[in-house]
Input
Amino acid sequence: MQPGFLGKFLSVNLFGCALLVLAGCGNFKSLKQDQENLAEERFLTSVTVEDKTQSGQPFVVVYLGDADGSRILDAIPLSKPDSFEIWLAAGDGWIFAFTDANGDGRFQKEESYGWGNEGEPILAQDQKSVQLYVPIQNAGSGQMPPPPKLVDQPVYELGKLRFRKSGEVANPSDARFSQEAAVRGLWQPYAFLHEGNTGLFFVQPFDPQKTPVLFVHGIEGDPAQFNYLIDFLDQDRYQFWFLNYPSGLYLKTISDSLFYLVEEVRREFGFKKIHLIAHSMGGLVARSYLARCQEQAACGYIDTFISIASPFNGVESAAKGVKHAPAYAPSWMDLAPDSEFLSELFDKALPVPTQHYLMFTYHLDQSIGALAYIESGDGVIPLHSQLRKEAQQQAIQIMGFDQTHVGVLSDPALADTIGRILYRADYGR
Output
């Protein structure tokens, strides 16, 4: 989360294009157009998978552009039967799910399967949302035959609809991850998705001898903000990953995508442990991801969760933006202190063995005066939001740093603290 974003809304009492003073009418026009494009081309679908075979096996849900399986648009792994939401194209589409006992991400004819909508195409029509039930039944149980061209196909490699990149090697400082791109991800999240630069990236090729450290940025944030930490941490012991995403999306959409991406990478590389480090709004994404892990009884490989300056109790400026702005990003709704997203964020315990280290920031910015210091510990996020009671209760340790909201990411004291935490997690427990 950037000062440039929330600072623009700290005193919002204006309407319409009067907000030009704060963020510019052009941004709101872009945001509104982006949302209209999404409404025309996508519709939200709730999918519930039920295993009638009671196999206890993991599943793969596949979104198909053709009933014969020749076009795979998306593929989502599930550790157990579950409900989730997915954006489908406003045209013919089919939902198919199958058990994946061997974990190869491919459908074999002998595997149990099921169709959503009884195998009929799913059409948006005038619906804003539809609900689909997918019963998993044994092969040959009398249901519609499986899609013939899907058999033995690598569904994760061929799916293209959502956060599609997983495991691509990339430099966090690449132009496609620039601050300009990050701003576009807030104001034009759907267009950002179309650019194809979302996903889980590796800073170096995967090395089975090194423990992954996964970084998650905040609103209007970019992966290069973690360069100082990457350079500081032990290169011989760790390998570095980062999530790149449009920060204007609903936070649960982002966290669910993170879940699917990490699961895909795990299936491919078989790593044993991950450390998770998240800044600002990225901490909310990460905590929601961990809740998803708990729901799925998955992610036993996430050893350490470090949140830095995260608004666990939301920010009033986001609520004001939703109330007064001519258009608003879905993430602002989730950041509002009374949002449903925040109210449920800590309902589930952390998955075992994950341990949470909560790091908060405070800093007196002489340019905005002492009052702002009292109200907003680091110039952006209020201390009471960073130190939400439920977050403190679930944390194993709480530490404060006299730094600005973004400046903390280049603080030697923070880097040293994180290095010590990771070392203890790997060698001292």
Q: What stands out?
A: The first helix runs from residue 3 to 9. Residues 52-158 form one domain.
